């Protein structure tokens, strides 16, 4: 595979992966304006975000079997068209109920892009390169939290919140064009793959029973949930506890995003010298140590805003290194049902992350303790799952000599 071809494929797959985060982040600054426009409250507008999260959770499990039955591109076409139609529909909504419903449909469509992209990484690239490719996807994915809210805020102020959804539809249409003309079909349809409920459940269960998938998918999802704790609690911690303005918080958010994204790119260099299994061991142990220090300092009130930023930055660096390696190791054992495995992996990450974000939002403490506590809990539990689960893995599948469906 030439470097130009490699770069193009990673760019397209990264764009597909970033579609759902862009759909979440870009319209957040418009909540008050949307509430006023639809004659409702900001709290009810936030239900459209909840509807999107529910759609993502459901959709990922839906597309896994479809991708393994019909190949990668046909279900992806359906999902992208569904996303475009729902996005255009959001432009014309006249009630909050319509917006919530269409956001749910929009999420179902976006899941095709997310699950297909993860499965196609496993299809297209050699196993030894999977962790490096996932790290590059994170680099593209990182554009969303750094740019989308700011861009969305300017668009809302200048042209109204409705235009955001037309822009999202246009982005999806551009991605659909790229998929049709530049992304190869990486998996031949399998007519023997049944879409009846019992065989689908059996397929999911066969993936779950694989000790390597279960160990790395669960420990990766639990570790990744520390990021959700930070996302849910950081506005309160920085703006309410430390009293910074929304503009300063935006800069802090961008700085911390650099830690997550930058470390994922450092991982690309690490995978050239070390196995993903080795990297996960060290990164998770580092995450445990950092989170315990952060929690101890928070409980004793030893940190000011700068110390808090440093501790979160260090924690997110560990997450940025852990995530691509656990994702690659989770999918490594699968070829025939990689779509189902990718769907389960995404569902675990979203379900556990959403649960953690809800839990952290329930605490009313005027400190960083709840956030630090959940970060520490996520890191410790993830590390324990890794240590226990590894005993059941005879020899981790990390690289092989097989020729992938598309190498040249």
Automatic annotation (TrEMBL):
Return the PROSITE patterns for the record. Answer: MFS
Any one GO CC term of the record:
plasma membrane
Location, primary (coarse class): membrane
Using the record's annotation, list all stretches that form the Major facilitator superfamily (MFS) profile domain: 7-391
Where does the record say this protein resides?
Cell membrane
Q: Name one GO molecular function term.
A: xenobiotic transmembrane transporter activity
InterPro entries in UniProt: Efflux_drug-R_Bcr/CmlA (IPR004812), MFS (IPR011701), MFS_dom (IPR020846), MFS_trans_sf (IPR036259)
Biological processes annotated in GO: xenobiotic detoxification by transmembrane export across the plasma membrane
Q: How does the record classify its membrane topology?
A: Multi-pass membrane protein
Per UniProt, the keywords (alphabetical) are: Cell membrane, Membrane, Transmembrane, Transmembrane helix, Transport
Q: Which residue spans traverse the membrane?
A: 47-64, 76-94, 133-155, 161-183, 213-233, 248-267, 279-296, 302-323, 343-363, 369-389
| One Pfam family linked to the record | MFS_1
| Similarity field | Belongs to the major facilitator superfamily. Bcr/CmlA family.
Q: What is this protein called?
A: DHA1 family bicyclomycin/chloramphenicol resistance-like MFS transporter
Organism of provenance:
Mucilaginibacter frigoritolerans
């Amino acid at each position: 595979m030439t470097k130009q071809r490699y770069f193009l494929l990673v760019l397209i797959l990264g764009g597909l992966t970033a579609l759902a985060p862009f759909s979440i982040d870009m319209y957040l600054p418009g909540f008050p304006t949307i509430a006023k426009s639809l004659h409702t409250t900001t709290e009810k507008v936030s239900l459209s975000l909840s509807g999107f999260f529910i759609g993502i959770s459901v959709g990922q499990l839906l597309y896994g079997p479809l991708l393994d039955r019909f190949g990668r591109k046909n279900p992806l076409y359906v999902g992208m068209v569904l996303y475009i139609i729902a996005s255009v529909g959001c432009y014309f909504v006249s009630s909050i109920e319509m917006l919530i419903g269409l956001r749910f449909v929009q999420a179902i469509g976006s899941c095709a892009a997310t699950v297909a992209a993860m499965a196609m990484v496993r299809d297209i690239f050699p196993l030894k390169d999977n962790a490096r490719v996932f790290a590059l996807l994170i680099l593209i994915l990182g554009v969303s939290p750094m740019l989308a809210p700011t861009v969305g805020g300017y668009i809302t102020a200048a042209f109204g919140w409705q235009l955001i959804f037309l822009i999202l539809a246009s982005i999806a249409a551009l991605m659909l064009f790229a998929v049709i003309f530049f992304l190869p079909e990486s998996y031949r349809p399998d007519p023997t793959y049944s879409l009846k409920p019992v065989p689908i459940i059996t397929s999911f269960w066969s993936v779950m029973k694989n000790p390597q998938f279960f160990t790395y998918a669960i420990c990766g999802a639990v570790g990744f949930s520390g990021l959700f704790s930070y996302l849910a609690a950081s506005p309160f911690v920085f703006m309410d506890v430390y009293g910074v303005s929304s503009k300063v918080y935006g800069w802090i958010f961008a700085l911390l995003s650099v830690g997550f994204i930058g470390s994922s790119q450092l991982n690309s260099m690490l995978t050239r010298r070390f196995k993903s299994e080795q990297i996960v061991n060290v990164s998770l142990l580092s995450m445990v140590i950092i989170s315990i220090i952060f929690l101890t300092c928070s409980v004793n009130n030893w940190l000011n805003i700068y110390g808090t930023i440093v501790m979160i930055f260090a924690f997110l660096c560990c997450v940025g290194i852990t995530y691509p390696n656990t994702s690659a190791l989770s999918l490594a054992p699968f070829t025939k049902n990689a779509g189902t495995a990718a769907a389960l992996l995404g569902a675990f990450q979203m379900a556990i992350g959403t649960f953690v974000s809800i839990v952290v939002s329930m605490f009313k403490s005027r400190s960083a303790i709840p956030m630090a506590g959940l970060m520490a809990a996520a890191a410790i539990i993830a590390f324990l799952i890794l240590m226990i689960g590894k005993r059941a893995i005879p020899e981790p599948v990390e690289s092989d000599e097989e020729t992938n469906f598309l190498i040249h």
